[in-house]
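Journal club side-thread
Mid-discussion, someone asked how the predicted structure for our own chain would compare to the paper's figures. Pasting it here so we can look after the session.
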Amino acid sequence: MRVLFDGTAPVAYGQIYVTSRELPNMEMAFAGQVNGLCGAGYAGALFLMTGTHTGQVHLRIEAHDGEPSAATEEWEEVVEASFRPRDAAVELVPWGEGSLALLPLIPEDQDTRRLPAYRVRYCATGMDAGSDPFGGHDPDELDDGDYTYMERRPDRYLLCLWPEDSEFDDPSDAVTRTDAILRQTSRAAAYWHGWAAGLPPAPTLWEQVEAEQLRRLERERRDEEYRRRDELRRWGGRLPTERLRQVRGNIQGLVLLDRDLVDGVAAADAATQRQIAIWAARRALTLAGIADVDWMTPAWTALDRGVPLPAEFADPGALWRRVLGEPPVTFSIVSLRPAGHGPADPLVAALDAPVNPVAMALPALVAAGESDPLQAALEALWAAVSTYAARRNEFLADVRRAFPVIEIDRAEGHLA
């Protein structure tokens, strides 16, 4: 016999736990049992009841190699149940606190890979006295500020564990037995036994599996609904085609600003998309006043021929330095608006703000050279929209006039 714990243990709400992992649910621990003192129905855990509601009780926990002799007469309450731990060492855990003690059920020098099923015997004495908040002490005889009655509780407890018998060599194959009330004396124990007997039957293993499957399916359904709603939000209230989903790059601003334009460009053929990209880049750089500078000629030539941009045109920062003769400047913008008083439409407010047209236009040139024609068109359009800023509606109307093939027939849901 090994003593795993012998000392005072704090209890609250008349309960303390022995658990492999998570804390047990009270009703699940006792459902289907006749005893209401030692709940073993929650997998991998024991739910132990005490007479003391809040205070320090004495508890001894013993591990035996086989069934110990019957409980002596000093123990007024004796119950038994079967327990399947999930680990070779379990923990003694008070209510609302961390682990009080580690309880190694199997000695370190023994094989811990095959865990046996255990029979547990929970013994108690003095439960009725423990149910008294003052533990039998006369409150009139206690000094103000004297709370020692919470530490000198009259009820005591003993928990014994031993492996269940197995017909095979593997101890984990042992068949567990139903719980039993071997001795009952106190009104407190009778109350908890009656409470346990009134609980609905414990769910069968199949019912537990089925319930978990239903919970999993509901979680998956809710997760999928969240993803769908989040995608609707990000795509302006209309789910994208799979082709649009595959597009990388900075296109979400254009999606939220003009979703019909995005769908029209996505439905066009690759050649039209490439033409739109080059056209948008030219419009943006023209507005910025740099489309026709001499050193831009190789870039336009490459785009018109459908070949990659020369290396010196692939970096917006390098282009900025070449245009302005200095590196780009990064600004931090701090809003002075009170919290909760931002613009009604942040995207529109950002586009209406003053911009540096060169800084906004240069990404359009780089975007037009992207290998994916749809990404090239959408990114170049967004860069041009950012360049036009407050005049963006003028630009968007010009796009539709220049490329009528992208106009969406809203009534029919296809290209006009």
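Post-session note: The chain has a mean pLDDT of 87.
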